[in-house]
Amino acid sequence: MLFLLPAYLSENTSITHFSPVIKEYIMQTDYFFVENEKTARKVVKFFAPEKKQSYLKLFLLDKYTENNDIKEAQELMLKGQDFGLLSEAGLPCIADPGNLIVKWCHEKNIRVIPISGPSSIILALISSGFNGQEFTFNGYLPIEKGEKKKQIQSLEASVQKTGYTQIFMETPYRNNQLLEDLIKFLSPNTKLCIAANINDPEHEFIKTKTIKDWQKHKPELHKIPAVFVLGK
User: Fold this and answer.
1) SS3 helix, strand, coil % of the chain, rounded to 5?
2) Distance (Å, rounded) from C-alpha 174 to C-alpha 155?
3) Within a 10 A sphere around the Cβ of 85, how many other Cβ atoms?
4) Which residues are in the Tetrapyrrole methylase domain (predicted)?
């Protein structure tokens, strides 16, 4: 079996926010696909502090991974070994490369077990006040200035034309620059939700305002995990 295990969005989140079954599945196997070993060990310790870290068998699965890179792990699964798939934050396979092994499991008739947990994308959407029936997650915007401007204006036009909510992210150290670009390239009356430090009991920040209002009071977002949402 492959357990799709959620990770916390903030280390300060109480463990009572999570299903006890997460710990049960972590205790059930020592084998995990992970995007980052250091983060994965912290997540395992958060949910199951009594589990011996020396027992963990971690297989790297990031955006560069191909099936040949995890052949050893796949052979173990074909022999009946259970594995967990751990995200860097939130749910596996959403803004996360884990779908590679999930797809392979379906092809090999290996059972996939999803466990509910937080998704920053969904939590930002439901907190925004925007259309939750029809929405698009756009991942990360282009880095190049001209392409980024074109994408931002295209997302705004899509909101106005279709009513679909548009969700996107940025690498945390570029958040402030993205906000500056949004203020610069979007119309003053366009509405933007910024959802930062989601699930952090002390520092969570979720606000929906027009661009002209954001221009008056810009939050400090440098190196803070955030999701940006455009909508009506």
Assistant:
1) 40, 20, 40
2) 19
3) 26
4) 25-198
Candidates 110, 90, 109, 89; CA nearest to 31 is 110
Number of other CB atoms surrounding residue 12 within 10 Å: 13
Beta bridge partners of 90: 7
Task: Judge residue 198's burial from the number of C-beta atoms within 10 Å of its C-beta, 0-12 exposed, 13-18 middle, 19 or more buried.
Answer: buried
- Helix 175-185 crosses helix 145-162 at what angle (to 10 degrees)? 60
Q: pLDDT (tens digit, 0 to 9) for every residue of the chain, 232 residues total?
A: 999 999 999 999 999 999 999 999 999 999 999 999 999 999 999 999 999 999 999 999 998 999 899 999 999 999 999 999 999 899 999 989 999 999 999 999 999 999 999 999 999 999 999 999 999 999 999 999 999 999 999 999 999 999 999 999 999 999 999 999 999 999 999 999 999 999 999 999 999 999 999 999 999 999 999 999 999 9
